[in-house]
Design a protein that fits this description.
With about 170 residues, the chain is α+β, with helices and mostly antiparallel strands. The chain is about 30% helix and about 30% strand. The protein is globular, with a radius of gyration of 14 Å.
């Protein structure tokens, strides 16, 4: 499992863009993790799935509410990762009102989750291989803080925990 001091895996995530912009076309766009994290401080959190109860009612809304504070404390970007496709993450971003606050990044093949060792097997529940629930503080691609939840819990990966670590 990834640990404090390790470098994020050099994989490519996907991000859905609603509008064409500089270097971004409408629809899914690749996000090479190493390149996207270079020179930045990132508040990163991951969760089992878009539109799932705890993820939609608590996890994402907490980061949306604290986005300005996280940025004021030094986060250049806030990333939400889930083992879903970019289209689902785009729809969830619209539903959650994350535009300009969070980057909703799709780990569709669970490549990032597997590379970090932070997987959650929900096959018996019809959800397949997912990401564990966690948060991490990353600077220039290196993990500074890592907060992994125990199974079924939502206690240490919330926005308040990461905000305190950023301020610490």
């Amino acid at each position: 499992m990834i640990k404090v001091g390790d470098t994020l895996p050099a994989v490519t995530l996907m991000e859905y863009s609603e509008v064409e912009g500089e270097g971004c076309s409408l629809g899914p766009n690749p996000v090479p993790v190493a390149q996207a994290a270079a020179g930045k401080t990132i508040a990163l959190f991951a969760l089992p799935g878009a539109f799932t109860p705890t993820c939609s009612a608590k996890h994402v809304p907490g980061y949306v509410a604290k986005a300005a504070e996280l940025r004021a404390a030094g986060a250049d970007e806030i990333w939400c990762l889930s083992v879903n496709d970019a289209f689902v993450m785009g729809a969830w971003a619209r539903e959650q009102g994350t535009t300009s606050k969070l980057r909703m990044l799709a780990d569709g093949d669970a490549e990032f989750a597997r590379a970090t060792g932070l997987t959650l097997d929900l096959s018996g529940k019809g959800l397949g291989l997912r990401s564990n629930r966690y948060s991490m503080l990353v600077r220039d691609g290196k993990v500074l803080e890592l907060n992994v939840e125990a199974a079924g819990k939502f206690e240490v990966s919330d926005a308040d925990t990461l905000l305190a670590q950023l301020r610490g």
